[in-house]
Design the sequence.
């Protein structure tokens, strides 16, 4: 099974699950996270059980997890008493950080303590990380359109040349992520996101290939 | 210059400030309560270094002058006293806090401690997984929404405690205190259970390379709340075996913590368990109980980092 950790209101995630039904994709929703049945032994995560789309799944049956949300928010937990939602959301996020970090299968992207889908960096932090690594950064206020290079494992989709490819892969390595959208303008980076757009068929195919290939 | 960031009235911040003043240190206090009237402007140079300035009602600070920092930020709403998230004053205060966190993560100044290094405490089991890489035992742990799994876990261990999974402060309690109705709530929220480790609590403060250990005696499951249950609490300075002291230093260093409060328990057969590493210790409680010069040591650390 490939679990897609996302909101039920995320149409891209819904489309991803539908498109990957043959690969056994299923949505891991906020409702699943508050359902009875989860078991996680941090010392031995392989003995655990997850609830995915309402179904009990042994951890050894999980082939991969795609993280498509930085956090679970209290408002989503509609089954929980409203007075308890903020607490349950905090506990659920803390649980997910540990669980996603410990899973033996591929997780794209692995969480950080601040975000379930990679580093929670803002524009300033991305810029500092890039420039510190010697990557050219375009900070001009121009309206000129940027194009997106998507890092997926060791591939850099839509890179127009070797320099763009290397820049994007370097930034992903610094951020310790396998899946990254890098905005490029005039050959210089001008932004990055740990949640690349999944509307593009080529991106979805590359991501699936990354998930099912041996770790 | 040494920068202190937090809300005056916070005991650790106040006591470090007092010690720095006593030493005649060059200190700038960034009062988080004035966040709505504070603006932080940051720039990234072409080599990736961050610079900028802070404008407060008390003056302008060029961040280039800052060599050492001690941060104790509260949540924006708590520090600013503004509860409405749509209040423009709250938005300004939150923007100042976010910018300060950015700067504290990116600056080449020494920060006690960097926000990024502190966030691991948002998830206790995640922190425990980091601890397990060092020369300490960690308790067998289960996080679950499955009541039957809790029952099986209890059968395997003589005694079990439960506590929050997140950084939300909770009172560590023995499972016997959790009613069947309480156990049913487990099905709605991931809950953390740990085997109870019988032994003596030892709190260790690592401040730079200095170690301050305290032995704690209390009948309470969670000594921090001993008085609530009518239990006594006795603390006394202790000396750690050098091997344990070195493991504490190594662990703090590897977690990028210049200052850490480490909760250990020594068992009768000489095993050392580690439960938590607090990256922003509320050390004044321990200082008041033992007389150990913790604030003075933090001040000395900041002076060394500023040199």
Sequence:
């Amino acid at each position: 099974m490939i679990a897609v950790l996302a909101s039920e209101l995320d149409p891209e995630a819904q489309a991803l699950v539908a498109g990957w039904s043959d690969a056994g994709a299923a949505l891991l929703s906020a409702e699943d996270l508050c359902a009875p049945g989860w078991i996680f032994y941090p010392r031995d995560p392989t003995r655990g059980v997850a609830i995915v789309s309402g179904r009990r799944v042994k951890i050894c049956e999980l082939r991969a997890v795609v993280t498509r949300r930085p956090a679970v928010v209290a408002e989503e937990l509609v089954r929980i008493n409203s007075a308890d939602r903020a607490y349950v959301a905090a506990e659920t996020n803390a649980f997910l950080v540990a669980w996603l970090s410990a899973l033996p299968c591929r997780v794209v992207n692995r969480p950080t303590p601040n975000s379930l889908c990679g580093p929670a960096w803002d524009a300033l932090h991305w810029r500092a990380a890039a420039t510190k690594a010697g990557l050219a950064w375009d900070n001009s206020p121009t309206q000129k359109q940027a194009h997106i290079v998507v890092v997926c494992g060791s591939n850099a989709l839509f890179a127009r040349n070797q320099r763009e490819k290397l820049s994007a892969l370097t930034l992903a390595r610094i951020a310790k992520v396998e899946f990254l959208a890098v905005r490029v303008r005039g050959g210089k980076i001008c932004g990055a996101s740990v949640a690349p757009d999944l509307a593009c068929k080529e991106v979805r195919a590359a991501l699936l290939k990354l998930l099912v290939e041996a770790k | 210059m040494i920068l202190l960031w937090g809300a005056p009235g916070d005991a650790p911040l106040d006591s470090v400030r007092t010690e720095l003043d006593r030493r005649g240190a060059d200190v700038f206090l960034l009062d988080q309560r004035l966040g709505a009237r504070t603006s932080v402007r940051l720039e990234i140079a072409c080599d990736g270094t961050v610079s900028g300035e802070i404008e407060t009602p008390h003056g302008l600070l060029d961040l280039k002058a800052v060599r050492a920092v001690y941060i104790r930020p509260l949540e924006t709403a708590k520090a600013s006293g503004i509860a409405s998230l749509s209040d423009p004053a709250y938005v300004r205060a939150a923007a100042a806090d976010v910018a300060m966190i950015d700067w504290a993560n990116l600056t080449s100044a020494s920060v006690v401690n960097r926000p990024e290094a502190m966030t691991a405490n948002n998830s206790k089991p995640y922190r425990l997984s980091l601890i397990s890489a060092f020369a300490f035992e960690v308790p067998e742990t289960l996080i679950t929404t499955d009541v039957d799994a809790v029952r099986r876990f209890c059968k395997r261990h003589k005694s079990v405690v439960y506590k929050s999974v997140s950084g939300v402060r909770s009172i560590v309690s023995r499972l016997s205190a959790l009613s069947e109705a309480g156990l049913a709530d487990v099905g709605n929220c991931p809950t953390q259970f740990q085997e109870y480790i019988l032994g003596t609590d030892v709190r260790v403060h690592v401040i730079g390379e200095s170690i301050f250990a305290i032995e704690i005696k209390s009948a309470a499951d969670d000594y921090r709340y001993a008085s609530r249950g009518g239990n006594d609490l006795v603390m006394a300075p202790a000396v750690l075996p050098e091997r344990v002291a070195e493991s504490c230093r190594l662990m703090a260093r590897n977690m990028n913590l210049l200052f850490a409060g480490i909760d250990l328990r020594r068992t009768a057969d000489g095993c050392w368990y580690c439960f938590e590493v607090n990256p922003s210790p509320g050390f004044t409680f321990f200082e008041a109980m033992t007389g150990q010069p913790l604030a003075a040591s933090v001040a000395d650390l900041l002076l060394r980092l500023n040199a």
About this structure: Chain A touches chain B through 44 residues (CB under 8 Å). Chain A has two domains: 2-108, 123-193.
